[in-house]
Amino acid sequence: MTDSKYTRQTVTDVRIWVPGKLLSLRLTRDPQFEFLPGQFARLGLPAQATPDAEPTLWRAYSMVSAPGEEGLEFYSIVVPEGEFSPRMAALRPGDALYVEKKPYGFLTLDRFEPGGSLWLLASGTGLSAYLSMLRDPATWQRFDRIALVHGVRQAEELAYREEIENLHLRPDLAPYFAQGPDKLRYLPVATRQTLPGVPRERLTTLLADGRLEALLDEPLDPARVKIMLCGNPGLLADARKLLAERGFAPGRRGIPGNLAVENYW
After folding, report:
1. Which residues are within 8 A (CB) of 205 and not within 5 positions of it... i.e. 6 or more apart?
2. How many CA atoms lie less than 13 Å away from 84 in the CB half-sphere?
3. What 3-state DSSP class applies to 67?
4. What's the confidence (pLDDT) of residue 49?
5. What is the number of H-type helices and E-type strands within the chain?
6. What percent of the chain has pLDDT over 70?
7. Top-tier CATH class for 6-104
8. Average pLDDT over residues 7-35
9. Does the first or last residue of the chain, that is N or C, have fewer Cβ atoms within 10 Å of its Cβ?
10. Residue 89 scores a pLDDT above 70
């Protein structure tokens, strides 16, 4: 390997959420690769499907895995006409995937002061960064309450739903859930399918008309709530405008804010 900027890792598991559309990959992790929840890695593949060829195609993917996990996990949508994702979706355990040694990104919890509530709003595979945070006990220690809102089109796209609904059963997280039954409020939202007890609406519509606050049972108070946005550009543009009108803004010049945003493509 001539390029010291990356390491060669091995796929250990593939999970298909929606055939031909959504999948997760687990792979080995270089012991020197360290990251913060919310950061992303650049993954590489050779331009041609030739064993041991140098990687020349690179794409960014947020870590689903927590910093303390032995392996790395990534969640991906398959773009049929894309150069990278169909190739990655074809990988099987034992195949190679390359990882740059340096993590990237600033959608991290150190953007906020500890305390209060943390709202994690995501569309589609923007969920990835939040899973890393939710798997990390330090996140639960840092905030009094956490709300996760995941917007998709169809219910089958609600990847990781079972894991999220059972986080309270994890021995390392159970003490935080013991602080109160409302430690986590998980709200899955589908725009093209009705889910029990959840309006069939876009996240920004629920945010604009106040129903999101009602569903999360908490007022949108900029003095108490910190919000992260991760998803498609349309969601981010609309939500940022709505939140700015309510007093939410990113931090600046070393002053922590109450809003952090990352475009997820």
Report:
1. 211
2. 15
3. coil
4. 67
5. 8, 11
6. 97
7. mainly beta
8. 98
9. N
10. yes
Helix (H) or strand (E) run with residue 165 in it: helix 161-165
> If you search the block for the tokens 């809003």, which residue do you land on?
259
Judged against a pLDDT cut of 70, whether residue 265 lies above it is answered with no
Looking at residue 247, its pLDDT comes to 96
Separation of alpha carbons 153 and 224, rounded Å: 30
Instruction: Please answer whether residues 96 and 12 qualify as being in contact, where contact means their C-beta atoms are separated by less than 8 angstroms.
Output: no
pLDDT for 2: 52
Distance CA 201, CA 74 (A): 27
Extents of the domains making up the chain: 6-104, 109-263
Domain 6-104 and domain 109-263 have a common topology = no
Task: Report the alpha-carbon distance of residue 203 to residue 151 in Å, rounded.
Answer: 6
pLDDT the model gives residue 48: 77
CB 121 within 8 A of CB 228: yes
Q: Are 33 and 44 in contact (CB under 8 A)?
A: no
